[in-house]
Amino acid sequence: MKRTLMLIGLGIAFVGASLWVVLSGGRSAKAIRAKFRLGGAILTLVSLTSLASCEKNVGCYDPAPPLHNEVHINANVGAEFRNGDEINIYYAFDIADTLSLIVLSEDGIELQSEMLTLEPGDEYIPFKLNVGDYRGKATLKICYNVYEALPVEEAFDFVIVE
Questions:
Q1: What does pLDDT average to over the chain?
Q2: Phi/psi class of residue 8: alpha, beta or left (left: φ > 0; alpha: ψ in -120 to 50)?
Q3: What are phi and psi of 12, to 5 degrees?
Q4: Regions in the chain scoring below 70 on pLDDT
Q5: What share of the chain is helix, strand, coil (3-state, %, to 5)?
Q6: Is the separation of the CB atoms in 69 and 152 below 8 Å?
Q7: What are the backbone angles phi and psi of residue 67, rounded to the nearest 5°?
Q8: Sign of torsion, CA 152 153 156 162?
């Protein structure tokens, strides 16, 4: 409250000094000196007030929003695909990242794997199934933020038919 009253008082004094400069036609050195000193006092008080309200006396800036990386499959769970079909994968990344794609059989055997380096942005990437003679239920495991402490894993179940 004290600081607010001081700021209001300095503001009124600054307006008075500005009026004094205007009325003297800018010829009064005392009026110009008073205006500069009051302006400096206002800037100092404002900066001290803004720093005093922050934690650890650092600048009061909002932290950067958390980065978000998203991956979506452009197909329904349980959809049927043939060997050689493409699954469209949509990604939206804020930073460059590595995307790991692994196709697993129902028994957990790895049928196909691919690592992609993705640039920031959003787009569709085609993933071509190449699982040989395998037929039956399969899972596409998608991993991103691979090199981070908490990588993200998503799974998409589908069926491979003739």
A1: 84
A2: alpha
A3: -65, -40
A4: 50-68, 146-149
A5: 30, 40, 30
A6: yes
A7: -70, 145
A8: positive
Q: Residue 105, exposed/middle/buried by CB under 10 A (0-12, 13-18, 19+)?
A: middle
Quickly tell me which residue has 């460059």 as its tokens.
96
Q: How far from chain centre, in Å, is Cα 139?
A: 30
68-73: long-range pairs with CB below 8 Å, 24+: 68/92, 68/94, 69/93, 69/94, 69/95, 69/97, 69/144, 69/145, 69/152, 71/99, 71/142, 71/144, 71/154, 73/140, 73/142, 73/156
Q: What pLDDT does 153 receive?
A: 85
The 10s digit of each residue's pLDDT in 93-137 is 887 788 889 999 999 899 999 998 888 888 888 889 999 889 999
Confidence (pLDDT) at 125: 87
Name residue 88's amino acid: N
Task: Write out the two tokens for 136.
Answer: 């039956």
**DSSP H stretches of helix in the chain:** 2-23, 29-52
Angle, nearest 10°, between helix axes 2-23 and 29-52? 160
